[in-house]
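Supplementary Text 2. Reproducibility record for the structural model of the 531-residue chain.

All settings were left at their defaults, and a single model was retained for analysis rather than an ensemble. We include the record here because the model underlies the residue-level annotations in Supplementary Table 4.
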Amino acid sequence: MASSYVQDTAFEDAVRSYDWASTSLGAPDSWTPVLASAVDIVLRTPHPMFVCWGEDLAILFNQAFADILGPQHRDALGVPLRQLWANEWHRFGAYVDAALAGRSTEAEDVPFLTWRSAYTQFGYFSFSYTPLLDGGGVRGLLCVTTETTERVLDRKRVLQERDRLHGFFEQSPSLIAISLGAEHVYEFVNKAYEQFVGRTRDQLLGRRLADVYPEVLGTPALQNMDDVFRSGSPVNVPGVHVRVPQRPGQRELARTVDWVAHPYRDVDGTVIGVFRQGHDVTEQREAEHNVQQLTAELIHVSRLSAMGTMASTLAHELNQPLTAIANYAGVGQRLLARRDSPADDPLSGALAAIKNESLRAGDLIRRLRQMCMRGPADAEAVAVETLVADALRLALLSFREPPMLDITVPPPLFVRGDPIQLQQVLINLIRNAAEAMEGRTNQRLGIEASEQGAFAELCVSDTGPGLSEEIAGRLFEPFSSTKPHGMGVGLSITRTIVEAHGGRIHASAAADGGCRFCFTLPRAVEEPGAH
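Retained model, structure tokens:
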């Protein structure tokens, strides 16, 4: 019978001219249609294939399979399959037996010693065996095969490299975790990660991140991992605040971690997961915060030093004229008394006010200098209601026209401090409000006090032109003033007094326009005047 397998190629010419009559297959014209068709298919396909036929399964193969066999492939034509691979029959004989029993079989990446290396080197192959039926029974089999040696060795090299990297990761002090897939299933965690999260590998590996930590659902942390997996681009996530268990059964600790997430790729570059590395920077952030606090304290001390120097200068330069003013006022009072002036003489009252205010100014300068040198002196419980009333009585003289007052002060509210200094804080703020509202038609001065835990908060608001961001940034700096002839020390002194009492002061825009100054002072529970 004529065969249709002949093609005009060198290899097919060699197959055609081969002495098949000397093999169990016999001459090609004696081949059955099934065998002839199978041989034709094998020789015409570019994929590695071979046919085994007859009781001894004599082999016939194409050029692609000959390349797998190696340079001595012609010695294999017509050789029984079991003889050709006698040394490796234990590896794939079962697949052949299954095909001869009428069942198609397949296998992937099977290792065996290759014929081309004289059975000295391993190769890896994926193959399938299909039974060839003829005359009502299995007469042979058709094998489609692919050599996967390079792919398998590449994968092994990658796995070995990953094992080596995992060894490095295990010794790293950084927090390292590798997850696979869009569900972020834990694949690897190092010891540092275990200790940080308070969970063992058995509790993590093979589980989804969302199953282990349900609280991450819908958070930026999970969104970042999703983005890395989808885009293949790394993401840096600094300053992540987390709470981790200190020990089983103990309270959780607040920690700060800088995370970086990288795509985790397969051999062919496909993103298969996410590699995360974290650094616990809690102590570093605390150190930075401490440095900021120390810097702020240094600035505060420098400001106090400058204010102390200024207060000493003021005390030296102003004490004498203030004393002289008080003395002259006293002399004026005595002269009026010699003239038998009535007790309600306005001039006598004015001289008394001049004397009292000059003495108060001298006392204020003395106390301010004392505070700048060693902190607030003569601290006592002061009723906020009285403090506000006294400050208004003195400060309202700064208004050319009396403003509308909006005072809200709960009566049983006390603060601890020096009453003269605290009174000066309110006077400064009220006078600033007066200057801000000067010439405006709707002048409204608001003062309110409230309890804020262990502190009392006092706020002074006005209906002036308001506060710009530029001015707000340097409002409390010494010698910085928005007034044409201002010295720029009023608010600086005010802040110094408030902070020396353990409080804080800030300015903001009022809700209905104007400006609002609020400061806090420690609350007191004793009766006013108690030390």
